Request: fold
Amino acid sequence: MEPAKSGRGPPDLLEAFRVAHEGKGPTHLSRAPGRVNLIGEHTDYNGLPVLPMALQQEIRILFSPRGDREIRVVNGEREFGLREFSISENIPPDPSGDWANYLKAPCQALAREFVATQGPSGLRGLNALVSSTLPVASGLSSSSALVIAMGQAVLKANDLTLPTLEFADAMARAERYTGTQGGGMDQAISAGAREGHAARIEFDPLRIFEIPVPSDWCFVVAHTLVRAEKSGRAQEAYNQRTRECREALEIVRGVLADSELFKGDTGSPGEVMGYSRLLESICIQELVELGEAHLKGVLLKRFRHVVTEGTRVYDAEQALRRGDRLTFGLLMNASHESLRNDYEVSSPELDALVALALEGGATGARLTGAGFGGCAVILSAPERLKGVLTALREGYYRNRNVSGPMEEVLFVAQASEGATVTKL
Ligand code: NG1
Reply:
């Protein structure tokens, strides 16, 4: 698809909008980027930091406000079809996996958020056309980009605003409507990213700390060609891990509550001790030993990944700030190993991409996003980039019959700006 120029949709999309909406054109464009997470995987829903950056690929919604409560949305990709519903505080979901749920999630959340101020007539609806330059189900967060772009469109259609972090937080909670018990990383970076920067994101409360990405660091994104579906088995495996992390934490918290070492200091009255306070209070070696002494099997593995990954994010941030690419790369490699062995979310394809990239001269490589397919992120020095890309083309894509221009599956990420809405 052609990129949009100067805030206007490409002519074919404008025409498709008119055809779908009784000959009338759109008045606004809402765009929200996908993201690549550089490090900090499966930490966000445990209250630990992440370090993503927004991508140049994005979801775009051409829209115009309506006078009633109807939402009428078509998709640039015909396979997705028309979706119609009324905006209200209780919108019945479509079957799990249907793309309408990512439109309904922000609509229901915003209707609830503004119920007190909007009066009995509620929020106004809109006519829209969604298009995307992001590969779907790739671990690059097309789902949250859609939620953010749609939420932003609904706000604009109703002349409403929310501060960025509040909006991102509301959209993270909103996306749970789709059945995934996700964290808040994707919505925060899609809404709040700054061009040329990655960000360390902290949760409870949500905060974003921008970090410039040195111009001689190349982050390559490589798709396994295996979809990382956000419904069905992958969703169950994801939600299962959120439960396992909570269970492990409860056991450790119980041990600490009556431990001499911790002297019963599990936080101020009323505060529930989470992973974040654990990491602040106990050094990582002791924390891992504690886990090894009191947890078994899967719970030990999940615990060990979460606490070591949280620590790696802080170390990686420091490496990024001082331009220490080697250390950052080593941390990425350690993250991948932990995700493969302890968190068990890698796949043979992800492992193959990581191994090929490293053999081809990359500084570091790991899976990005939830795993179970999707993409790997690879760090390379500029002078090694060609070798890395060739290794991936020859070693991975050629066997799978992908050749010619392959920017949809293999590209260099550019740290991009967060979501915006413009008048056409
Ligand atoms: P992906 O699968 O890339 O959209 C998911 C979660 C993130 C985070 C990562 C794992 C959602 C919307 N996204 O990302 O919050 O937990 O997995 O680090 O649930």
Summary: The longest helix spans residues 232-257. The radius of gyration is 22 Å. Residues 41-42, 44-45, 139, 141, 143-144, 175, 180, 182-183, 185-186, 228, 369-370 surround NG1 (CB under 6 Å). The longest strand covers residues 51-65.
